[in-house]
């Protein structure tokens, strides 16, 4: 069984994160960026993730103990107004040669554990509707669909995709039905 681990990304990870992301951009079908992003743009993106938001690098461990970066994921701002604090957007990308080998499942489990540790209330995922693997994965973790936007975004191949919107409630109600002093309906 393959062993994975993760760590908080730093600016030292700009190249590996950019390369993995641009691989996904060029393959199409998983991001609305239509051309590769620059290392500088990805550096700014990493730096924009200030606690409680974060970017993580996912690694596999070889028999000799050496780590290989196989993907990355992020807990990002969902909407930048204060009333949405605690609601986050999740994203993860796995390098092509490591897809369908458990990295995505590890990535999503890790991101959700980090969300809970960072007191997030809700996690959202926005996924191309025809990306059946990612949609099935979030659904397997209990995410529920809350909408679909037809013909919303193009990918690098010029394909126009519908977008599916998923949400997972991360905050169990306390005995009074309130969370952090906010009354629940």
TrEMBL record:
Signal peptide interval: none
GO molecular function: acyltransferase activity, transferring groups other than amino-acyl groups
Keywords on record: Acyltransferase, Transferase
Keyword Isomerase: no
Organism superkingdom: Bacteria
Record-linked InterPro entries: Acyl_CoA_acyltransferase, GNAT_dom
Matches recorded under SUPFAM superfamilies: Acyl-CoA N-acyltransferases (Nat) (SSF55729)
Keyword Acyltransferase (UniProt): yes
Pfam families: Acetyltransf_3
Every N-acetyltransferase domain range: 4-166
PANTHER family attached to this UniProt entry: N-ACETYLTRANSFERASE (PTHR43072), UPF0039 PROTEIN C11D3.02C (PTHR43072:SF23)
Protein name according to UniProt: Possible N-acetyl transferase
Organism of origin: Bifidobacterium animalis subsp. lactis (strain AD011)
């Amino acid at each position: 069984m393959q062993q994975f681990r993760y760590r908080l990304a730093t600016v030292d990870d700009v190249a590996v994160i950019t390369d993995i992301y641009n691989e996904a951009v060029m393959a199409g079908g998983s991001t609305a960026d239509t051309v590769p992003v620059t290392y500088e743009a990805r550096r700014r993106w990493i730096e924009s993730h200030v606690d409680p938001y974060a970017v993580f690098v996912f690694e596999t461990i070889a028999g000799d103990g050496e780590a290989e970066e196989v993907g990355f994921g992020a807990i990002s701002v969902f909407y930048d107004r204060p009333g949405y604090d605690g609601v986050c957007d999740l994203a993860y990308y796995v390098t092509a040669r490591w897809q369908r080998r458990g990295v995505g499942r590890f990535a999503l489990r890790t991101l959700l554990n980090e969300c809970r540790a960072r007191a997030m209330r809700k996690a959202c995922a926005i996924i191309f509707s025809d990306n059946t693997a990612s949609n099935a994965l979030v659904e397997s973790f209990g995410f529920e669909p809350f909408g679909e936007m037809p013909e919303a975004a193009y990918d690098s191949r010029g394909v126009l995709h519908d977008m599916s919107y998923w949400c997972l409630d991360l905050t169990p109600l306390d005995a009074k039905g309130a969370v952090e002093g906010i009354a629940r309906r």
